[in-house]
Amino acid sequence: MSKIDQINQKILRELSRDGRLPNTELADRVGLSPSACLRRVQELERRGVIKGYRAVLDPVALGNGFVAYVTVGLSDHTKAAQEGFERSVALYDEVRECHNITGTVEYLLRVEAEDLIAYKRFHTDKLGTLPQVHQIVTHVVMGSPKDERA
């Protein structure tokens, strides 16, 4: 299994939709016997193709109805500045994702907060106080018609 064949692609597609899918049902959906399906899933896990399983949480149900994507530009483009910024945002519960990106800014964050007031507090009292930060641009999520994050 050095490459991802069609059956493995089907397995991955089904598991990405429902990681709690029983092996017998998964095997039925992809056209394998349960034992062959389980061997393939275990091999995908061993190879690191499947990195883990997790629960998908609803931010609104958790009291975090405000979701935004935030681009952050750093004032200094050194490794030390990046590492310092990354250490800081790793401590913030509001930051659900942090991506180092290419382009005119260095980072893209997905931020969840209770509401606009809570986000403003995060923006002003946390993100805005980091010495590495030069620019912050907020993009408020108004809806998510497609979201395949797991």
Please render the helix and strand layout as text:
Blueprint: H1 6-17, H2 23-30, H3 34-46, E1 66-74, H4 79-90, E2 95-100, E3 107-113, H5 116-126, E4 133-140
Antiparallel strand pairs: 1-3, 1-4, 2-3
Helix pairs in contact: 1-2, 2-3
In short:
With 150 residues, the protein is an alpha+beta fold.
Describe the fold and architecture:
There is one protein chain. The protein has 5 helices and 4 strands, in the order H-H-H-E-H-E-E-H-E. The protein has helices at residues 6-17, 23-30, 34-46, 79-90, 116-126, and strands at 66-74, 95-100, 107-113, 133-140. Helix 1 (6-17) packs across helix 2 and helix 2 packs across helix 3 (34-46). The chain is elongated.
The residue fraction in helices comes out at: 25-40%
**Largest sheet, order of strands side by side?**
2-3-1-4
Order of helices and strands: HHHEHEEHE
- Give the integer mean of the pLDDT values: 95
What is the number of helical segments per DSSP (H or I, 4+ residues)?
Answer: 5
Radius of gyration: 20 Å
Anisotropy-based shape: elongated
Assembly context of the chains: single chain
Instruction: Kindly state the number of beta strands.
Output: 4
The end-to-end distance, rounded to whole angstroms, is 24 Å
Largest sheet: 4 strands, antiparallel
Please state roughly what percent of the residues sit in beta strands, choosing from under 5%, 5-15%, 15-25%, 25-35%, 35-45% or over 45%. 15-25%
Structural class: alpha+beta
What low-confidence regions span 5 or more consecutive residues with pLDDT below 50?
none
Question: What descriptive keywords fit this protein?
Answer:
5 helices, about 150 residues, alpha+beta, about 20% strand
